[in-house]
Design goal:
The complex is a heterodimer of chains A (146) and B (145).
Chain A: H1 3-32, H2 40-54, H3 68-92, H4 99-141
Helix pairs in contact in A: 1-2, 1-4, 2-3, 3-4
Chain B: H1 25-37, E1 40-45, E2 48-53, E3 59-63, E4 66-70, E5 75-78, H2 82-88, E6 94-96, E7 101-104, E8 108-113, E9 119-123, E10 128-131, H3 136-142
Antiparallel strand pairs in B: 1-2, 3-4, 3-7, 4-5, 6-7, 8-9, 9-10
The chains are: A mainly alpha (146), B alpha+beta (145).
């Protein structure tokens, strides 16, 4: 992915990650600490947390077109990097304090990642269906020489 | 729009007359399509130079600063740069599919999304090409979506 396109993607995904982080906090606290109270500083911390979740996407930067295999490999590296960065930042920020919470935190990040991937893939399937329908229509009705 | 076709004697030159209220974008696009459909390109295959019709080309690709035109069964080297080919094929069914390829949408059999987050275009001749997600809107535009 080119740097310009990547930066555009980072800017678009930042508020989405922020929103997902707040939702994930809600689920996490609902399970482990339903009586917890958050101050204003937590919202500020989440800005940094979302940035930490956004930056691993830089792994997709490439000057040339990546092959299918390279792209899948980078996705895998991205997931591992994301888990590593978020677990570390989460620990520093006190989002998880012990092994059980850490494992749960890991699976929340994984679940969000898979949900986002599934939604993107579903949208791709919808677009492909729409395009295939148009291709079929064109082949039926148009002069192939134009 | 009304379409009239008039058959003329063999000796007379064939012509297309467009009667319109104004030269709007739609008319210009139609004009470009008509002009480009007969456009011929030169391609080198082995020691021979071939004249190729734009509509017979499946896709254009640049590899290691060399440019190639892909026909149904043959690959032709060309002197054209990617941007030059894009300009030449503007208004036709060709669309930019990645950093290095321009594909003829008229030769795509179907497309499907890949797990890597891109799309795979299956061509009429059985070839499989990649379409970057960022260029999918270009394909949609060519198809009028």
């Amino acid at each position: 992915m080119e740097l310009r396109e990547l930066i555009k993607r980072l800017i678009i995904s930042y508020p989405i990650i922020y929103g997902c982080s707040i939702m994930a906090t809600f689920v996490f606290c609902l399970v482990f600490d339903p009586d917890s109270v958050f101050g204003m500083d937590y919202l500020g911390k989440m800005f940094l947390f979302a940035l930490a979740g956004d930056l691993p996407s830089l792994v997709f930067y490439s000057k040339r077109e990546l092959s299918h295999k390279e792209q899948v490999l980078r996705k895998l590296i991205h997931l591992l990097l994301l888990e590593g960065v978020l677990l570390t930042i989460g620990r520093i920020m006190g989002l998880h304090d012990n092994m059980t919470e850490g494992i749960f935190f890991f699976f929340i990040v994984l679940a969000v990642y898979l949900i986002v991937w599934f939604l993107a893939f579903s949208d791709d399937l919808r677009q492909a269906k729409e395009i295939n329908k148009a291709l079929e229509q064109r082949k039926k009705h148009e002069d192939p020489t134009i | 729009m009304k379409i009239s076709i008039e058959e003329i004697p063999r000796g007379e030159e064939e012509e297309i007359i467009i009667r319109c209220h104004e030269m709007n974008e739609e008319v210009m696009a139609l004009l470009h399509k008509l002009k480009s459909s007969g456009e011929q390109l030169s391609g080198i295959c082995g020691d021979e130079i071939y004249r190729l019709r734009l509509s017979d080309i499946y896709y254009f690709e640049t590899v290691d600063q060399k440019s190639f035109l892909y026909g149904e069964n043959r690959v032709y080297e060309t002197k054209l740069k990617l941007y030059e080919f894009e300009e030449l094929a503007a208004g036709t069914r060709f669309f930019r599919a990645s950093k290095s390829t321009v594909i003829n949408a008229g030769k795509i059999s179907h497309i499907k999304p890949s797990l890597s987050g891109r799309f795979e275009a299956f061509m009429d001749n059985g070839e499989k090409l990649l379409v970057s997600r960022s260029y999918v809107p270009s394909l949609k535009k060519v198809l009028g979506l």
